[in-house]
Amino acid sequence: RQDETKFPSDEFPAIVSLRTGRDINDVVMGLRREKGDEIWISINSRPIFKENSQTPEAVVASFKDITSERLAWKKVQQSEMLFRGFMSNSPTLAWVYDEFGNLVYANPLFMSRIGLGEQDMGKNIYEFTDPVVARRIMEKNRQVLAHGKPVTTEDQLLLPDGSEKYYLANWFLVPGKYGMMIGGHAIDVTEQKSAEKKLQLMNERFTYVVNASSDAIWDLDLQTNEIYRSDAFCKISGFNREDIESTLQWWSDRIHPEDKLRVEQKIEQNMREGKPNWEDEYRFQHADGSYRFISDKGYTIYQNGIPVRQVGSMQDITERKKLESQLLHEQVQKQKLINQATIRAQEHERNMISAELHDNVNQLLISSRLFIGIAKNTPEQRDELLDKATNYLLMAVDEIRALSKRMNSKVVSIVGLKESITEIANNMQQHRHIQVELDVDERLSKRLSSAHQLMIFRIVQEQTGNIVKHSQATEARISLQEDGGEVLLDISDNGIGFEYAQSGKVKGIGLINIFNRVDAYNGKVEVDSAPGKGCALHIRFPLQVNSETESGKL
Hints:
The protein is α+β, with helices and mostly antiparallel strands and 554 residues long. The radius of gyration is 57 Å and the shape is rod-shaped. The longest helix has 60 residues, at 318-377. The protein has helices at residues 13-20, 67-89, 108-114, 125-128, 131-147, 190-212, 232-237, 248-252, 257-272, 318-377, 382-407, 410-415, 417-431, 442-447, 450-471, 509-519; strands at residues 24-32, 38-49, 56-65, 92-97, 103-106, 151-158, 164-176, 179-188, 216-221, 226-229, 277-285, 291-303, 306-316, 435-440, 475-483, 486-493, 524-529, 535-542. A hairpin with a 2-residue loop joins strand 15 and strand 16. The strands form four sheets. Strands 5-4-8-7-6 form a five-stranded antiparallel sheet. Helices cover 46% and strands 27% of the residues. It has five domains: 9-73, Beta-Lactamase (2-Layer Sandwich), CATH 3.30.450.20; 90-192, Beta-Lactamase (2-Layer Sandwich), CATH 3.30.450; 213-316, 2-Layer Sandwich (Beta-Lactamase), CATH 3.30.450; 319-407; 411-554, Heat Shock Protein 90 (2-Layer Sandwich), CATH 3.30.565. The N and C termini lie far apart (119 Å).
């Protein structure tokens, strides 16, 4: 049989005609010959009747060899099966229209995407498609028919579920039994299109960022040594785009000779060690011949351990370098001034100690020596003179002890800040007859760090010394209070005052010492004085509680 099953003997055409008295036509039968090959025959049978008889007496049969036709049919059937199997599993949409727009063929994917069924096969495109889309398809069909050449298009398709898809389609001629037809196939490129849009958006964002940034972006292909530079590089280097070569050597040749070897070695070392990031600062020759300071940062991309690409950014830091140099110069000058002030302060202290020793201790010792000398030559007054000499010696010892106490920084930590200030006030009242009003917050004085306590004590020492020596005051006031996280120290007198320069330039060793001490702790000093109106010193600095870390600044 044609379906490859065995042909039953009782169904042979001649037997059926003999049994039924009917003509049997075009029965196909396959025969296997002794050689092993197959032949296919088409059999026709006719019954023969005797006169006036209803029962066949014989049968006439004819046989036609249709082996070649059968083989050709089999090939066509196999091709058809192969085609339909391929089309059923193809990821592309496939279709064939005739020249009038009737759907001749469509694969299952096309049918499902468009929302068609078997009943729609043969319908005209206007019957199942939006008129606008139908006209566009018919235009493409006519274009293919007119020129006889394939046409490739990218189309947007609105599916029945409302979603949108993008397809890359190819339209071409298909020979038909009754004329030329138009076939086509289309692949879904929606994901690719979406990726392209995302990439386009990323490129736009990158372009916006590059244009908005003052940094010059660069991208170096290490295999070809070709480099891309953004437009910002033109601004940094001063070169026009056409004057800039896209080679690494062009960049290298413009690095300052003192920096070039260091920069190249650093980059090579980073790549040799497989490090991804590097950065450096160097001088780069501007188009005008001058050198600009550049901060350059790069990221190396490796493939199988081999560097293949570098991307990075350059920034002009010339102004920053100038400011750093200027700041360094100012810091050096400031340090020199501080050193000079320190030296002057030391000399001032030495002179003060020398004056104390000369004016007080030395005079007492000379007087004691004088009485001892007189006692040797005047026996009758020896005891009286020796007692006087002893008293002068004791007075000299007291003066040295007082001087040592004033110079000793441990006095504050042992006695306490308030007590130390009180002792200064008492000495001013007892020995200099200056009435002193004290307003010291005892709780604050104990909360202050030891460094701040010592600073306040030294300032009070310095300023009260100025009052005693220069102000001719009869009254003074010392106040130590807290105000919103800051320490306020006020020292004032009713003396003769002086002309204070509002320009901020401080004169006098004593005031310079005070300003330096307060500045070391981020404080501020205000001086309010005028001839005949006394002097007021207002000091304000941040409160620092129980910290010993800053004590070395004094």
